[in-house]
Amino acid sequence: MLAHPVPSPSIATEAVVAPLAEARRAPRLSVQLAVSEAEVREAQRLRHAIFVEEMGARLHNTLPGHDDDAFDPHCRHLLVRETAGGRLIGCTRLLTDTAARAAGGFYSETEFELGPVRGLAGHIAEIGRTCVHREHRNGATIATLWAGIAGFVAEHEVRYLIGCASVPLAEDMAQRVFSELAAQHLTEDTLRVRPRQPLPRRDLDARGRAVLPPLLKAYLRVGARIAGEPCVDADFGCADLFILLDTVQLERRYARHFLDRPQ
């Protein structure tokens, strides 16, 4: 079980109040951390339904009908439910740097050499395995999920969030997305990561266009940057971009959008 330190005022002020403001605006949805093995299994079943049954991912699960892996026992699992009836409609998992040491590293280290990111001052937490039921892939669900993440950031004094954002491989979409985002959303050279299986570069048809997946859009809207070129994820049949978010940006954006406060 992970410890729950008292948040510092500099992190807590906006990041904790924001989830409360969002809860008032979206009473049909609630967000909370899983508190039992049964709730973790519920999240794993939702992940399996979306990643395997819907998306066709080839995962190495040990429980039939569940997406489970060696990182799950070390993570906190954030659940978004319909308030009426309690149906689980979305989830993500969060792995703190303390828990990552016990897990043998972050999940993203299986795809990227993190290099300088590991040397950042302040606590790091990784977002992973994020998914939303197809009937609820809308702004309200994503906002509720981020409200829960913001609360976790405050509680654990997290300075940086990291993770992998998936982009389809079809029609050179991953390369198109990276090319479009690199101009404005790429980190400085000193914070670049290296993909273990880089996406091969190809000449792009000028008639094609980049289409950003909803979750990647959500990361960028709260101030995330991409920290290098994509990595091929063969199991999921996609390419992943490494995402780095300074949570100071998360706080400011939540204050502006959910608290209606000038910055």
What report would you give on this structure?
With 263 residues, the chain is of the alpha+beta class. The chain has a single domain, classed as Aminopeptidase, CATH 3.40.630. Helices cover 35% and strands 23% of the residues. It has helices at residues 9-25, 37-54, 97-103, 139-155, 173-185, 214-221, 247-258, and strands spanning 29-33, 76-82, 88-96, 112-113, 123-132, 158-168, 194-195, 225-226, 231-233, 238-246. α1 packs antiparallel against α4 and α1 packs parallel to α7. The radius of gyration is 18 Å and the shape is globular.
Work out the radius of gyration: 18 Å
Distance linking N and C termini = 37 Å
Q: Helix coverage percent of residues?
A: 25-40%
Largest sheet, in brief, is: 8 strands, mixed
Topology (SSEs and partners):
Layout: H1 9-25, E1 29-33, H2 37-54, E2 76-82, E3 88-96, H3 97-103, E4 112-113, E5 123-132, H4 139-155, E6 158-168, H5 173-185, E7 194-195, H6 214-221, E8 225-226, E9 231-233, E10 238-246, H7 247-258
Parallel strand pairs: 5-6
Antiparallel strand pairs: 1-2, 2-3, 3-5, 4-7, 6-10, 8-10, 9-10
Helix pairs in contact: 1-4, 1-7
State the gist of this model.
With 263 residues, the protein is of the alpha+beta class. It has helices at residues 9-25, 37-54, 97-103, 139-155, 173-185, 214-221, 247-258; strands spanning 29-33, 76-82, 88-96, 112-113, 123-132, 158-168, 194-195, 225-226, 231-233, 238-246.
Attribute tags:
7 helices; two-stranded antiparallel ribbon; 263 residues; 35% helix; eight-stranded mixed β-sheet; 10 strands; alpha+beta; single chain; disordered C terminus; Aminopeptidase; disordered N terminus; 23% strand
